[in-house]
Every structure is written in C-alpha cells, then in structure tokens.
Design brief:
Blueprint: E1 27-35, H1 38-47, H2 53-56, H3 58-65, H4 75-90, E2 95-105, E3 115-127, E4 134-144, E5 150-161
Antiparallel strand pairs: 1-3, 2-5, 3-4, 4-5
InterPro entries: HotDog_dom_sf, MaoC-like_dom, MCH/BMMD
Family: Belongs to the enoyl-CoA hydratase/isomerase family.
Protein name: Enoyl-CoA hydratase
Length: about 170
C-alpha cells in the first residue's frame, strides 16, 4: 500500500506567477465567474457600513434611482471580486504587497443575479530597485457581466516575488 506522501510521489502546489512568468500584453482569463446574489450584496454592504439606499432599500431605489426598481450591487463588492477572481491564477502565494490602484471605474451597473467574469492584462513589469528578489507588476483588471459589458476596470501595481534563487532577469 502506497501512501500519498511517498517520497516518489510528485507534488504540485497551486500558486500564482513568479515575476519572471508574467508576460506583458497577455490577457489572463479567470474562470469560473461569480454570480452575485442579494445576500452577497446585503452582507457586503452592511459589513462595510455602507448605508447607501441604492444597495439596501428596494422602495427607495424604485422611486429615486431610475434602474427599473432594481438595487445596484455595491461597486466595492464588484472591485473586490474582480481582484479576488485573479488571485489563484496570478498572485496566490507570490504577491508581496498590493501597491495601489491608479484607476478604478464602473461603466455599467451590476444587479442581483448578474454573473461577473474577470480578466487581467499585464501592462508592465520591472525589477524592484530597492527590494532584491522582487519586482513590480502593473495589472489592468477588467470585470464583465454575462453579456460581456464592462462593469469594472481597475489598474493596479503589485510587488511580486521573483522565482526563488533568481531575481536578476526580467
């Protein structure tokens, strides 16, 4: 009987990309998508103390907001989920820090029942000048609904580890 921990068993650990593995201009598609529920929206909105009636009050939304009586999904949920959908493919265990966002927009609203799909384009990368073994990777995250409409766009910089034992090639 062979145990799964046998020394001859090949082990693969899921991780994000090392700095050297990011390719400028490549579009990474993150699947599966995520269908947003009313519960997702209400819990996120109340946990973050956002009392905006656009997210919580159907009556107010139907009379004031002009979205056909529907409440909007909290845009911060959308942004968080777009970035979250990218983690297992791009930065799981390889990111050092999120350095910041320079652009964030929400060109189309999301509603309960919409499905969010995410993709990321690597727009640039460079080795860190101050942190050996690490590099800065520029990412453009795009979220689309089930119709292909862009619902979120965010540009961010991340600090990513170089492949262990490397770090001088980029």
């Amino acid at each position: 009987m062979t145990k799964a921990t046998d020394m001859n068993t090949r082990v693969i650990t899921q991780r994000g990309l090392w700095f050297e593995e990011f390719e400028e201009g490549v579009r990474y598609l993150h699947r599966p998508g995520r269908t947003v529920t009313e519960t997702d929206d209400v819990v996120f909105t109340t946990l973050t103390m956002n009392t905006q009636p656009l997210h919580l009050d159907t009556h107010w939304s139907s009379e004031q907001a002009g979205f056909g009586g529907q409440r909007l999904v909290n845009s911060m949920w959308t942004l968080s989920t777009v970035v979250g959908l990218s983690v297992s493919q791009l930065t799981l265990g390889t990111i050092v820090a999120n350095l910041g966002f320079t652009e964030v927009s929400f060109p189309t609203p999301m509603f309960h029942g919409d499905t969010l799909y995410a993709e990321t384009v690597c727009t640039g990368k460079r080795l860190s000048r101050s942190r050996p073994g690490q590099g800065v990777v520029e990412l453009e995250h795009i979220g689309r609904n089930q119709h292909g409409d862009v619902v979120c766009r965010a540009v961010r910089a991340t600090m990513v580890q170089c492949r262990p034992g490397r770090g001088s090639d980029g």
